[in-house]
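Co-fold these.
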Amino acid sequence: MAANGEAVKTEHLTKVYRDFWGRDKVRALDDLNLTIHRGEVFGLLGPNGSGKSTTIKLLLNLIFPTRGSIKVLGRDPDDGEVKQRIGFLPEESYLYRFLNGEETLYYYGKLFKIDRRTLQRRVPELLDIVGLDAKARKRKLREYSKGMARRIGLAQALINNPDLILLDEPTTGLDPIGTREMKDLILSLKQQGKTVLLCSHLLADVQDVCDRITILFRGKMQTLGQVSELLQVRDIAQIQAKGLNEQQLEEVRQFVQRLGATQTQITHPTTTLEDLFVRVVRQNTGQDIGAGTVAYAGASAEETASGKSKS
Amino acid sequence: MDFITNNLALVLGAAIVVIGLFVFGIRDLARFSLVRTWAISGVCFDESIRRRVLWITPLAILGVIIVSQLTRPFDEQDVIRQTAKFSLFATGMVVAVVIIILAATNLPREIENRVIYTIVTKPTTRLEIIVGKVLGFARVSAAILLIMGLFTWGYLGVRAMTLQRQIRADLESGTLTAAHEATLRHYAEYGLLTAKNYAWPDQLQVYARAPEGDTYWFRGDSEGSIAIPFEYSAEDFIAPGQRSLEDGSIVVLIANLVYDQEDEVYEPDLLTELGVPTTQSSAGVGLPAPMLKPVPRIIVEVLDQMGQTVIAPQQIEGVQRGVALPRGGGEVRVVFSPQQAVQLASLGRFFIQITGITPGTTYGVRMPKAPEESPVFLWLTGVQSGQGRAMHPTQLPDERPLILFHGRRGSYGQQLPGAADSRTVAIYRFRDAHPKLINDGKVPFEMRIGIERSGAEADDPEFTRFEMVVVNRATGQASEPTIVRADSNRNTYFELPAAMMEGGDFDLVIRNTTRGHWAGLREQSVQMVVGNDLFGWNLFKSLLILWLMSVLVVIVAIFCSTWLSWPIAVILSVVILLGHWGVQQIGDVGNELGRQVAQEMFPTGAPQARVISTSVNAMTEAVRVVGSFLPDISRFSATDDLVNGVSIPALRVGDAARVAFGFGLPLMVLAYVILRNKEVAP
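Predicted complex below.
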């Protein structure tokens, strides 16, 4: 880990795609200076073709920069030590379709040289966390639904108990419960001090979990900052109160107008559709939605403490 | 410096490995993990198996069974040989095709469907990815070879058992011919699944009569010849007193020969045709016999070291109709022009071949003990009289004689004509060949020859009879003649007395006693059996060689797939694997190709023809250079030995391993370097 607590740092990072003859074709990323701090959940936003995927690929050494430098956990991105400590969930779960869920995790575990005994404990644990039941674990990935594929993809990204997790569109293909679980998991990872880089089109998801975000457009950084600060509307105040009747509400409105407010509006807050969906399903199944996430947090912490994850 | 020039491919390969691993890949080499590599190979293997690649083996097995049942073998041993041949051919085909497709498509597919993202973002190095994939597909080919090998072993075992039962029944019936019975007894004794070790003769000479004293004889009537090896550099051909070859050198062949003629009367027409001087124009009635004998003549030609004619008799001044020997024998001289001297100078090693062309005549030459004593040599004339220099024959390796005696070349090798009283003999020389399998004082031998028959003259339509005599070179003792009957292109099994082979240095003298039969002999047509290995072990060695070939195929295919799309990678892999062989075919045409193409395109236009000829030859040369760097897949031929029941020498396995890894290792490192610098995200 970098001494100054930087999980990712890019300086003047530029990527130009060239054609067969070496001529510039597309400038996908232009002079990106970005710092992601350790322990934060960082959102990378932007429309299609803005350079989000290019940034992730550069951080993972899948492609090489045309100009500029990258430090991931204080080292070059092709450093073995770095790869030992990162987890990556690609945009779609690009996995071996002929392996089953368990075999997939064992395979990726071996790539981290995790010993068999540790894997025997961690694999079922991770499968529980991502919500793949015993039957699903033995099925080939080619038989998985999109949601199941995301879940197993997430499990492989966490197999090494990483310090930095890059999640590319993590909620794509997940149902609302799965989305909620994913967001809970991200928050749980944050609680464990891990850094999460989240790349998503679903802005609501980003808003729910991210500490800071940046918005890219045409390869350039447009905005960077705390989510709360960036979304704040400073000339409008919001008061929340519980247990007031209509008459008391009217008194509040008059009081506020006397203070000089030009526009006043009193409404009843609505919950999100996601919250409603989760509540309905929970009531009908008695399922504890966040149980897996909590269990993972406990197990990971324990393993981290005992240092059982081998490099 | 010479070592580098002579071993350019080896030096280049070593440089690629050292630079690739220790300059580009030192970090990845230091981090190399067998656990990760094995895991990657395991996924390749599992994927192939789950894609039902092995389902092709039952199909191949079915094909082998059907084809082997439809063939028409000529005897019991041939049944086994043909079955083994089909089985190994099918095995090689299945392995090569499956592996090349699997290996060439794997990496491009993983990049295309982005599975590679989840691999390269883990601590795996690209070196581990390449090695893991090679290992994985090598495991797949091993699985295919194991299944096909077990089938081959079992199927051949069952067939051999059934045939042995039939052989025993035939032998008990007592209705067989002598030759057939000898063969079947051999099969019954040694079995049909053999893996024999042989001692091979190291030379074959065909003489007009068995050598006596120091004069050796070759046949006339264009049925016999002698070849004398010379090996000199171009500088050696510069005439004394001259500065360069272009100044003109004249080379003279000097040969001291004797002859012997039969007392025969020739028809006048034939005599005229042969240019024989006669005292009368009518038939030679009343003339004394010596006057009727034709003048003994010889022709001379130059052969390169592959035995191809470089300077034909028609091209040598005064040789067209033959050079006459002096009456009673003596010295003949043949002059090569300065242009031909330049040609000789460019050859390095060449042979002067002297052929006796006169019917009813045998030619004799004294066998020299040292090159300086040779009765046949070249004389390089000097500018001034007395300045000339002798160029003596060159001693070939393996103690070969300075003069090589040949029979006429037929379809199956040097011809040994048959006659009840034939004096012509073929002598196989065995050196350091110690008998090991001795049964009742006899040593088993095998012979496989081709026989050409003249229907009108043949006195045995089926078999050819040979008289075999073993002569111990140390003691001079000779065995009693053994009569052997042989059929064309079939193995003949016979036994010869071990007593004459003590010390391991002996000659096998063969005389063909069947009139109208010409036996075609090659240097390795006869061999002594010195051991019999287990067939299963031989099959294992054969499969091991096939596996080594498949490893090379995997490496080539993966190398191509690191920088090409898979269809192109498959094609390029095939080109690389077959390139050396293809270039060898062009090599046989040599510089003639340019001339042929030019002649076809511009039969009359000399300047254009020269341009085309030079261009084609330059391209041919470039292709030849490229070909010399490609792997020689002929080194993976293990089928022939197994099919012929010959024990595969460990050296051959080593040779296959040398080609597989000598070419494969640098290519694997190149594949790694390419992948290391490749952006795997499309």
